Amino acid sequence: MAWNDVHRASGPPMVGRHTERAAIGRLLDAVRDGLGAVLVLSGEAGIGKTRLLEYAAEQATELHVIRLIPVEAETGLGFSALHRLLRPFLNRADRLPGPQRAALDAALGVVSGPPADRYLVGLATLTLLSDAAAEQPLLLLVDDAHWLDRESAEALAFTARRLHADSLGVVIALRDGPEDNGLFEALSAHRVTGLPETEAKALLSFATRRVDTAVAERIVVGTGGNPLALLELTDALATEQLAGIAPLPDPLPVSRLLEGHFRRLVHAMPPDTTTLLLLLATVPAGDTATVWRAAGRLGLSARAVQPAIAAGILGRDTPPAFRHPLIRSTLYAGARPEELRRAHAALAAACDPVHDADRRAWHRAEATEGLDDAVADALEAVSERARSRGGYSQQALFLSRAAAFTKAPTTRAERLLDAAQAHLMSGDPAAAQTALDLAAYDIRGPVLGARELRIRATVQMFRIAVADVPAMLMDAVTRLGPQDPGLSWELLCEALHAVLVAHDCTHGTSPAEVAAAAVAARQHTADASVDGRALLMEALARRVADGYESGAPALRTALNGLRRGGAIGDANSPFAVMLAMACDDLWEVQAGRDLADRLASADRGTGALYALGMTLLVQAHYDLLDGRFREAEVRYAEFDDIAADTGFPGGGDINRLHLFALTGRQEELRSAVRRTAEMRSLGHGVLHLLAQQALTLFELGQGRYRQALKHARTVFEQDSPACGNLILTPLVEACVRTGDRAGASEALTRLEERAPLAATPWALGSLALGRALTADGDDAEKLYQESLDLLDQSPLALERARARLLFGEWLRRGKRRSDARTQLRAAYESFDAFGALPYAERARLELLATGATARRRSDETRFDLTPRERQVASMAAAGLTNAEIATRLFVTASTVEFHLSRVFRKLGITSRKRIPHAIGEQGPATEG
């Protein structure tokens, strides 16, 4: 329902609430200044949240005010609230970028097509509202947000989190308790509590009946200052109780008294009025056409509404609306089952069977008792409509209800498994677990059993608990047997992914066992030679099952196929993680960068935020290898934004281990390492190894070689594809510096075995460096130079700087000071430019020992940019327009413009053409 002209509801004036009013005032000021702002008001029923929304509307006289009031009965109808919210703005939909328009059209059922990505729907919502706000600042008021359907809530939460410079304010009111879906937790929130005693008494003075002073004090204390309770109890309590003659209930049961009071008000109405009120409570506010069609089927007259208006249950607005949301929820919750079934039956008959099939099926189900396959089939049919719109929580609800009406146990189990899968797609693993537990009673046969285990394993992955997942999926393969080789291969790919992440922390199976099963199963799949993703998973399996000699050629073949355009996974698969493991195991940085960039582009184009988040971490890894520390920090910051948007619990500093190590941020590094220990208990064994690798680099930078050796040895012994090869050269260095000749020989032997098999410039350069560290005389110098020449062929600026440092140190020890200065100065300048402070200091001290000077350089102005500003500036430098940048970053063009204005100010430039030079990046290619 849109409010273009909003009037305060009749009743007493607002008393107190100075803190809340000030917060609303700040929000409105921000919107008037062209910014975006959000405020979440939470509190118990009747505490005054609705009145505060009315206050916000009263103060927003020059703003376009929109109010959205969800309905409890439609909590399961995906995108229903969003459709009502966006209806006034859909004439602007043709201005949306193509992917956003397609996603929104699919979500709202405008066109048929692939399921809508929920994050693109959220971005389309933000873009539409921002576009409208550009013409007139906009204030969105959402009452009873706990009754929003999940898809609409996600879109609104996404919009609220991404507000920045959009002339758009959002105030959300929701009730404390289990109804809160947690999607708004990360937003600026204020908990509304009861009025202080003085203000509560002042409000009570406006009551319609006289209240004794002592009784008033007891009511204030007993209600906790709840404004609605204060006023409504003066009507609910007997005259003798208000006068102090008869005792008050002790303790004062506020919720029960309020609900009982509202229930008595409704029951005092004529029967036709009560039925009409129940119809109004069951449909969205403003949907009077459906209400009156249903009322007509029940023989109700339009005059039936008048007693409710006269009693103050409904306001005098047109169309009629409940005076307070609590009346609506009390009425619906308190109706007798037969009353509800009668109302839902009338509403089902009033719904159009084609254009409103979802609501029709839902109302029909609510009107039905017992098992009914026809009702179940209708619910399953509309669940497919919900899935096609990306309404996965709605699909899950319809399927769960369909299962409740289904007679055949096997069909019931299938529908519950489908519901569990839909819950996972909507990001609700707890609900998926419930559906799985219900399905377990009716599971029959190996196929359903395997499917159940697969979904249970996915639930564990959602909870980032990996340890049991490989064994669960292996059990699913065993149950399935030879019936479906394709499905068996998919299950084994998922098991392999999980076991590579878990490494040595699996329960019930081992990496070698999973990998061997995957290699065997691959021979029976139909696409054994064409699917790039499958080829890579097979190659990783061979690497783990049969060793590096067998795995490396397979990895090379798979990567070549992917680079030629092979399939790189779907939007729901974080394929970048496996890709990075394969590339690092081959010392293949260029392929890794190219394919990660391709994945990121695809993920952005489809709005696949979860997959994009994983890809960003891989891109950050390659940025670090090339000394682009600031670019890596930009990607980490964007990943954290995405983690907040998707509810993924893996964000934060745990992903910055190597950045902390290389920049010498010891306290942050130690804290992140402690978190990896916690993650290890959930089965994330490879994360522990990555932490040990980071600690190795940190200690080497500090010149603490014995500590570095301890950490590097752990990684070497575990030999994970993720970092087992990358640790070899640092391990050789630590061994040489500590005099561990046997350890150096062991590490070098593995290098000599594997680097020629990988045959990449990075592999061969690492081998040359490892040999140089253990060689003497002219041989060492040739090997150092060979290493530099090879590393220079790939984007490995950090590795080249480390090689120069080691070469310079060797030259200095040989008393070749002039030659040492050349290498050490180059290393120092590189490390200093990267921000690798420990290594820069190590190079500086070595340079001083040659008799040279090394002046510390001050940071340049461009490094004052925030990660988001740096990201926007970099994209602008590459030639992207504001609209293109906005689409890639899931923000609005006005937000991009805001960030660019700050970039110009900080860099002291006035032209977009000067950005590349100012931030030290190459501009877009020019024609001609």
UniProtKB/TrEMBL annotation:
The keyword Disulfide bond is assigned to this record: no
Organism domain of life: Bacteria
GO CC, one annotated term: cytoplasm
Keyword terms of this UniProt record: ATP-binding, Nucleotide-binding
Sections of the chain in a coiled coil: none
GO biological process: regulation of DNA-templated transcription
Stretches assigned to the HTH luxR-type domain: 858-923
InterPro entries reported in the protein's UniProt record: AAA_16, P-loop_NTPase, Sig_transdc_resp-reg_C-effctor, Tscrpt_reg_LuxR_C, WH-like_DNA-bd_sf
Pfam families xref list: AAA_16 (PF13191), GerE (PF00196)
CDD domains: LuxR_C_like (cd06170)
Entry GO MF terms: adenylate cyclase activity; ATP binding; DNA binding
Protein name: Helix-turn-helix transcriptional regulator
Organism ancestry: Bacteria, Bacillati, Actinomycetota, Actinomycetes, Kitasatosporales
